[in-house]
Amino acid sequence: MPGKPRPLSLTPAHVAQVHRAIDDGGPGPGAVLHSDADYDEWVERMIRSHPAPGSPTMLFAYGSLIWRPEIEYVGETVGVARGWHRAFCFRMIRFRGTPEQPGLMMALDRGGQCRGVLYQLPDDGIEGQLGKLFRREFTYKPPNSMPRWIKVETASGPVSALSFVMNRASPLYAGSLSLEAVAEVLACACGHVGSGAEYLLNTVTHLEARGIRDRNLWRLQALVAECIERNNDGARERGSERLTIRRPV
């Protein structure tokens, strides 16, 4: 059983300071979107390439799928994916960022290990489930987060699971960034679905509730809280300076 979650430095009050009402600017010039036929092809490809045909379809969740799965599942357990780690490694110019102030989104990138949640998907209607999932997880061509079968270790032994890994060939791949650099982005960026700070808070909160401590994310949430507080203090100081200048003699 997970122990009592530790209080986070990052709070809903911090997130509220980053949030802004932003209109969806749409895909943007030159963007190529996946069609229904493209998604159907991805579904067929992943079902055909299942490493263990006939066994249950497992989904490895490491980020927002933990706190907003939006698909049906019949069981869940904790597992460890070795050779992959969580990383805010691709730029977002829509959804949780804008072209003027890009955000960063998390994906599985190569190296290290990642502890997350395994969902067992129902056998019935698996094509529709995967189609819904793929439409949520990737929009543009080439996809940023690509579906891939990976090995995940569980208390009952290793299983093959579907997950979404970073496509390093994507033009939006940001590479390996320091936690400090990521924090600066997440403390400011916001798009029409919300901010990066909100995404981080939700992810860390739900990982903690399951007894999963990601050291990098834990450090990152503290850094983001510090950045937001520093940005807010700076805004107050600039406002005070303007008031001082305008004060009549």
What does this protein structure show overall?
- By secondary structure, the chain is of the alpha+beta class.
- It has a single domain (12-246), classed as Hypothetical upf0131 protein ytfp (Roll).
- It has 7 helices and 7 strands, in the order H-H-E-H-E-E-H-E-E-H-E-E-H-H.
- The strands form 3 sheets. Strands 1-3-2 form a 3-stranded antiparallel beta sheet. It has a two-stranded antiparallel ribbon with strand order 4-5.
- Strand 6 (190-191) and strand 7 form a beta hairpin.
- Helix 5 packs across helix 7 and helix 6 (196-209) runs antiparallel to helix 7 (215-246).
- The chain is globular and about 70 Å long.
- The termini are far apart.
- The mean pLDDT is 92.
- Its EC number is 4.3.2.7.
- Pfam families: ChaC.
Give helix % range: 25-40%
- Broad CATH class: Alpha Beta
CATH architecture descriptor name: Roll
Approximately what portion of the residues adopt beta-strand conformation?
25-35%
Low-confidence runs (pLDDT<50, min 5 residues)?
none
Quickly count the domains.
1
Q: What is the tally of helical segments?
A: 7
Kindly report the spatial arrangement of strands forming the biggest sheet. 1-3-2
Task: Provide key terms for this protein.
249 residues, alpha+beta, Hypothetical upf0131 protein ytfp, 3-stranded antiparallel beta sheet, 7 helices, 7 strands, globular
Summary, kept brief:
Keywords: Lyase, Transferase. With 249 residues, this protein is an alpha+beta fold. Helices cover 36% and strands 27% of the residues.
